[in-house]
Amino acid sequence: MAMAMTIRNAASRRAMNPISADFSLRSMSSWWKNVEPAPKDPILGVTEAFLADPSPDKVNVGVGAYRDDNGKPVVLECVREAERRIAGSSFMEYLPMGGSVKMVEETLKLAYGDDSEFIKDKRIAAVQALSGTGACRLFADFQKRFCPGSQIYIPVPTWSNHHNIWRDADVPQKTYHYYHPETKGLNFSGLMDDVKNAPEGSFFLLHACAHNPTGVDPTDEQWREISQLFKAKKHFAFFDMAYQGFASGDPARDAKSIRIFLEDGHHIGISQSYAKNMGLYGQRVGCLSVLCEDEKQAVTVKSQLQQLARPMYSNPPLHGAQIVSTILGDPELKSLWLKEVKIMADRIIGMRTTLRESLEKLGSPLSWEHVTKQIGMFCYSGLTPKQVDRLTSEYHIYMTRNGRISMAGVTTGNVGYLANAIHEVTKSS
């Protein structure tokens, strides 16, 4: 009798609350049955395949992370010392939505210059961001919210995640010419034509230095011409500077493109990251800055950047910001960092020379001049997807299928093997 009443009561409750009944039925089936597997990331998937390969000869030149000449990850000595100093800190509180004030202040000096009038006049809206990716995404959302009819012009090619970032921010994308496959250099005329033909007041994504994936940068004179055309067309330049210091070994030199635009009176945006130049890959520490008309406008823009950050991640992480501010805020540690950045850049430059010379000594019928002309972490080799596949299947060499070689993964121990393998898959081209 009691059981019968319980059943009737349950039925009565379901009748009175059909939503609850539907939920109960739904919960017994799969909520996610229509979800399909996501495609593998074209860059991170390379490392996954490399790790799964048992071959003792395997070589990974796909990952965008610095390695020493033994192929090992590097923790900079300036970072180790900063860690030792931070270790005694008892501060574990939330950072403000805008992040570490000290870290942001020091970061702006790297981009705008130690004696920048824009910093002195407080015209820059800047917040700590989740490395370069987070800075780009925060700006993309800012662009969408406050310039809702705008689009972004992105170079061909570019870092693949750029497309994902602006797509997920729901900002329409267009592309502009950048790389010339035949010369393996800059398609300057195509770039200028696209800048000229874009609607007045368009947004353009520019790589400040060490273009990813091509390693091809405009000359200073070309940057001046680009800047002047941007000014005539009233375009907005957003610089992604992920490799400051990794191009020339001198962070100030690598910010030259930005300084040229500043000299010409542009209001620009900048994404900065410490993943590469301090080796803080997993700390996700970076900065987004937007140059404004005056201090009042900068305060307003910063408030909106913080408002966008609040539902995304609320506050940026503390530890990486402490490392950066400790290094850049101490003259001795900063000097050590500058030396270590140059050592890393010089090793990469040296490996470029060795790889080119090795290919030429093997009697390659192709020109490999572009290997040493390009700059930064990556070499856009010109290898085809089929040739890359052969390198993987026959020689256990891993790189992205667009032929991008991470020069940071090339060492004195594997450069000969790499050159020979490249020669074998290209000699009949």
Automatic annotation (TrEMBL):
SUPFAM superfamilies: PLP-dependent transferases
EC numbers on record: 2.6.1.1
Keyword presence, Transferase: yes
Span of domain Aminotransferase class I/classII large: 57-422
UniProt GO MF annotations: L-aspartate:2-oxoglutarate aminotransferase activity; pyridoxal phosphate binding
A Pfam family of this chain: Aminotran_1_2
Other facts: In eukaryotes there are cytoplasmic, mitochondrial and chloroplastic isozymes.
Function: Amino acid aminotransferase important for the metabolism of amino acids and Krebs-cycle related organic acids. No activity with D-Asp or D-Ala as amino donors. In plants, it is involved in nitrogen metabolism and in aspects of carbon and energy metabolism.
NCBIfam families the record matches: PRK09257.1
Name of the protein in its database record: Aspartate aminotransferase
